[in-house]
């Protein structure tokens, strides 16, 4: 079981972030807070680390895993195309609770895409999650910190023992607001398709897309 370390949301301790970055770089797993729920971060380019996340969560390998990235600039190295609709959504709704699904670059492991050829990306709005993403030179997994098919966790005290035991570090930012996860939009379609309704309202997405010349 990895240690539970309290972390301030508004000012994450650089030493704690460095410790998390070292663990991620070494192929470990870190439980991190996002805006609504706790997630499991691992190096998205390390297949052993990804398999470990799947094993801890008891998640089928046929399910893709979204990635957390540090900023908009990170997108270009991870996808083959950035449609105008994606640019608009990123400009207005990132950082935030919006995951955009792109055509994945060849460098993205099949374990992440589950063989779909697509990858979901998000810039997190929670200060700790974003600081962790910025502390490493690679994207990290953003899957929820729960056993597959169980509900998301808004308080580390509610972590399943299998998650707590499997993680190398748990960053405890206290109780989160809970609720639904991110809204997932596939921007490989024209117009983009909402795959999962989450915290970002569909109306907010449509309002942005309707202003584009091609819509």
From TrEMBL:
Q: Biological process GO annotation list?
A: regulation of translational fidelity; tRNA processing
What keywords were assigned to this record? ATP-binding, Cytoplasm, Nucleotide-binding, Nucleotidyltransferase, Transferase, tRNA processing
User: What are the YrdC-like domain coordinates in residue numbering?
Assistant: 14-200
Any coiled-coil regions, as ranges: none
Highest taxon in the source lineage: Bacteria
Instruction: Name the chemical reaction catalysed here.
Output: L-threonine + hydrogencarbonate + ATP = L-threonylcarbamoyladenylate + diphosphate + H2O
* Protein family per UniProt: Belongs to the SUA5 family.
Q: This chain belongs to which protein, by name? A: L-threonylcarbamoyladenylate synthase
Q: What organism is this sequence from?
A: Desulfoluna butyratoxydans
